[in-house]
Amino acid sequence: MTVTRFAPSPTGYMHIGNLRTALYSFLISKHDGGKFILRIEDTDRERLVEGATDVIKSTLKITNITYDEGPDVGGEHGPYVQSERKEIYMEYAKKLVELGAAYYCFCTKERLEKLHEEDATGGYDRHCRNLSPEEVEKNLKAGVPFVIRQKMPLEGTTSYTDSVFGEISMNNSELQDQILMKADGYPTYNFCHVVDDYLMGVTHVVRGSEYLTSTPKYVLLYDAFGWERPVYVHLPLLMGKNEDGSVSKLSKRHGAVSFQDLVADGYLPEAVINYIALLGWCPKETNSEFFTLDELKSIFTIDGVSKSPAVFDFEKLLWFNGEYIHKLEDGEFEKLVAPFIKTDIPENVNRQKMLALLKTRISKLSEIDEKMSFFITLPDYEKELFLNKKNKIADFDTPKTVLTEALGILSALDAFDNDTLFAALSPLSEKLGLKTGAVMWCIRIAVSGLSATPGGATEIMEVIGKAESLSRIKAALAKL
Ligand code: GLU
Fold first, then answer.
1. For the chain, how many structural domains are there in total?
2. Can you give the CATH number for the domain in which 392 is found?
3. Domain range for residue 433?
4. Is residue 382 part of a domain?
5. Which residues have a catalytic role annotated?
6. Given the CA of residue 207, which atom of ligand 1 is nearest to it?
7. Strands 157-162 and 310-312, how do they pair?
C-alpha cells in the first residue's frame, strides 16, 4: 500500500509551496487508494510559532486534504507530534551507535566555536569519532553533556534515484558527521524524520527539492539500520515573477503567498487547490485545466511531475478564481461573498439581484464592495459620458429626449422587474427613430453613471428600484 505523509514544521503561516507539497503527497497516496499521514515536526524548539499547528490543520480541513492518521485523528503509529516521541529517537540513536554508524560526541560549545572561528566552512573535525568505548562510558557516567553524530563513510559515493530528478550522487567525503541527537535530548530533523518515516510505514517521501541533496545522508541511515529505502519524490522549486521579468524563489515580495492571505483576499480554496495542482504537474491525457479534488485523485501520477521550476502566476490564479466564482450557484455565491461586503446596502437595493449580476463580473470576492458601489451611490459623472460613437449619439439632445420620455413611461409603472421594464421601454426606439441600443445606452448612463456596467439598463433599474431610478434619471436631465 502507498503511504505518504505531510510533515510540516509549525514555524508560521501555511506557505503556498507547503500546501502544494501536502496536496501532491495526498494525491500520490490517494491515487493508489493508500494512506496519508500528517506529522508535526516540532523538534526545532527555537523556531516554533504558537498557533502554527492549528493553521496547518485548518488549512488541510478547508481544502479537504484529509489525513488518515495524525494528531487529533490518531492512528496505530502515534503520537504524530515529534516532540512527543523523544524517547523513541534516543532509542534508535543508541541502536545506531551499536551498529557503528553513529557516535557520542562530548565536544564543548567552546571547542566547536573555536573550530568554527578557525575555519568557518570546515565543519566538525570528527574529534570524538574514535573515542574508546571506555572513554565514552566514563563520560556518560560522569554526566558529560553529549550529542550523537552520524558516522559518515569517508570514501566512496552514496546514490539514490529520485522519482522526479533521477539519480542523485554524493561523494561521501563531502558529508559532514551531522548531529542526530542534540544536547537538549531532541533529535534533529535529519534523524527523526527518517526514524518516523520508517516506523510509520511511509513508502513515498514527497517534499520540496531543497532536500534533494541532503537525502544521501538519509539513505545512509536507512542502509545502516537495514531498512528498505522509501521512494523519493522531490518537487520542483516554486518561483515568483519579479518586476524586471526575472524569477526568484516565491516569497512575500511577490504577493500573498500564504493560503490564509489568499482566502482572506477572496480566493476560493477549490480554485487555489486546482491552480497549485498545476504548479509542477501536468495531466497526461487531457487538455483541461479544471479539476476537482476527486478528479485529481484519479489522474494524478508521479510521472506527470516536472523537475523544472514552476512559476507562480498571480494573474493566472486570479483568472482561475474568477472562473470558479462564475460557476457558483447564486445562493452559494451570496453566502461566500457576504463576509466581504463592508458597505451597508440600503433598502431600495435588491441585494439578491445585485449579487447575481455581479457574480460573473468579479474575479475575487474582495472586489465586491468596489463593484457594487454604483448601485448604492450614483458616481459623479460628466454629461459627456452620454456621447457615444457606436450608438451614434453626438449631441445632448438625444439623451435629453430619451430620458424625458423614459421618465414618463417609468413613472407610470407599478411592477419594476426586468421584463416589465424592457417591455415598457422597447416601443420608445421606434417612436424616437433610434436603435434600441441607443435608447438603453442613455438610460443606462443615467442610472449608473458608468460607461461599463454589470447588466444592462433594465437590470440595473430592477436592482435599485423605482424611486432611485427615477431620481437618477431626473438628476441626469438636470445635468443635460
Ligand atoms: N519538516 C520539514 C519541513 O517542513 C519536512 C521535510 C520533509 O517532508 O521531510 O520542511
1. 1
2. 1.10.10.350
3. 378-479
4. yes
5. 252
6. 8
7. unpaired
